[in-house]
Design a protein that fits this description.
The protein is of the alpha/beta class. The chain is built from 17 helices and 17 strands.
């Protein structure tokens, strides 16, 4: 009997015999893990339509034990033992117990048939390679409902993904309220739908109640939610709401096109910091995660070059080029976040034109234009998250070079590309490699107008990335992953996830 787990555990040993039960076994154990145990029972009830039996002999027992490893990864480590008489799961923290229960969930999804569960006897000892194993969802270009995000979070956690990067703002829409700036929602959350030009514009945003509920839903699954507000570019939704914050004064509109637009926040206008401060206060209140992503990507400077206020700012700061204003803004935003006990992240453009001001040491760089940003950032002493569009991490690209495949433009990210990416580069020193937190897959939604479409683009490439970020580098084997994938996709079918099934490489 093949169990075909994804991600592949660090250590797996089969033993003679099978664990079998009629119906689903009960889940019980140490009280400290009550939340994780109750959630696992709820998930299995929803997955298979029947509840697990009562805790007791012959079921699943969760136990607390000393850490299997040191550090944060040690908190996520677990040991799963299956014998003919029962199943034991051991970990030092709730995160480890939850990951172990998700591995068990995979075994149950593929081992349950005709009211009988059969799992081979085995021992698994498991822990992650990286502490940051992320998935980004863009909800600005297409608004995804809270119910879909919950569905996605639940399935991501099945794969030990532990970071949900929530891209909440862009030129095409602002998705959360800021009390002091109500027009961000009244105007900035609405745009024309070019597919249905006769349809009225509607406000699409997440309420504070919905945000808190989604954050709590993710936290129960040991997923950290990291919000992103794109600054100072990709801000046409902001400028449509508050045109006085742009260099020209407008008029502006929330854009219904794709691309990079010249209108950005005016670097010479101090009132932008009032808005950004209110935004950061709101994020600090709604999101308990230590990180806030400030964007920083694709910022044209043509407006700054022509703007009298921005030219005065250049002179005051002693800068020679308008591009240096972005570095100044990045430092200012980072300081504002630090005063709110938050750690800033930025796309790799934040490394540019920093010779004069430098970058705050605590700023984390997310390398997206390739691997070079991660290499440069780690060499400068910054922590890094690798998400290179050139190396398998952009999941809005087509799965395969076929005209019938959906995706952005002609670019391709094969399942093989996602599997073969490596957040640690060969040219990194040991010290630089230690600064790599991990990696993530990014799903931009310019052309993804439905939840099912998003699922199709994510799966199974996010499964391949999950194994890349979790399993030891030396044990990775794409042929093995390809053999395991068909069984795993049947699990995704049970969970009502649409998954690509074409060529993998």
């Amino acid at each position: 009997m093949r169990i075909d787990l994804i991600p592949q555990p660090v250590y797996l040993e089969y033993r003679e015999g099978f664990f079998q039960s009629t119906g689903l076994p009960g889940i019980g154990g140490d009280e400290v893990f009550q939340g994780e145990m109750a959630l696992a029972a709820e998930q299995l009830h929803r997955d298979l339509g029947l509840p697990p039996g009562p805790p007791g002999k012959g079921g699943v027992v969760c136990r607390e034990l000393p850490p299997l490893r040191e550090g944060e990864q040690g908190k996520e480590a677990y040991r799963l033992t299956v014998t003919g008489g029962g199943i034991t799961l051991e970990a030092s923290a709730g995160a480890g117990i939850y990951h172990g229960l998700q591995t068990l969930r995979q075994l149950i999804l593929s081992g349950y048939e005709d009211n009988t569960l059969t799992i081979p006897c085995l021992t698994i000892t498991d822990y992650p390679r990286f502490s940051w194993r992320g998935c980004m969802l863009d909800v600005s270009r297409h608004f995804y409902t809270p119910s879909f995000i919950k569905k996605l979070l639940d399935v991501l956690s099945l794969h030990h993904i532990n970071v949900f990067h929530w891209h909440l703002t862009d030129d095409q829409g602002w998705r959360f309220p800021v009390a002091a700036y109500p027009e961000l929602i009244e105007i900035g959350s609405k745009r024309r739908d070019t597919r249905n030009p006769r349809e009225p514009q509607v406000k699409q945003f997440y309420t504070p109640v919905e945000i808190r509920e989604l954050v709590a839903y993710a936290e129960a699954r040991h997923i950290m939610v990291v919000p992103e507000v794109d600054l100072p570019g990709h801000t046409k939704a902001v400028l449509a709401a508050y045109p006085d914050l742009g260099c020209t004064g407008g008029p502006y509109e929330v854009d219904d096109r794709h691309g990079i637009f010249s209108d950005v926040l005016c670097a010479g206008n101090d009132r932008i910091f009032d808005l950004v401060g209110a935004v950061f206060d709101t994020l600090a209140e709604l999101f308990p995660a230590p990180y806030v992503h400030i964007g920083g990507d694709e910022v044209p400077v043509s407006r700054w070059e022509a703007c009298p206020k921005c030219r005065r700012r250049l002179a005051e700061l002693g800068f020679e080029r308008a591009r240096q204003l972005q570095a100044w803004l990045t430092v200012r935003f980072a300081q504002m976040l630090k005063s709110r006990s938050k750690i800033p992240l930025g796309w790799d453009e934040v490394l540019e034109d920093t010779e004069q001001l430098g970058l705050p040491e605590e700023l984390v760089v997310m390398s997206w234009r390739g691997q070079e940003g991660g290499l440069k950032a780690s060499a400068a002493g910054h922590r890094v998250v690798m998400a290179p569009s050139s190396d398998g991490c952009y999941l809005d690209y087509r799965h395969y070079d076929l005209p019938e495949e959906p995706g952005l433009g002609s670019r391709i990210t094969r399942v093989y590309d996602a599997y073969m990416t490596n957040p640690v580069l060969p040219e990194m020193t040991a010290g630089e490699a230690a600064l790599v937190l991990g990696g993530q897959g990014n799903l931009w939604s310019e052309l993804l107008y439905a939840d099912r479409w998003a699922e199709y683009m994510l799966f199974p490439r996010i499964c391949a990335l999950a194994e890349t970020f979790w399993s030891p580098r030396e044990s990775k084997d794409f042929a093995s992953f390809a053999r395991r994938l068909p069984v795993h996709q049947k699990r995704l079918d049970i969970l009502n996830i649409l998954s690509y099934r074409g060529p993998l490489q």
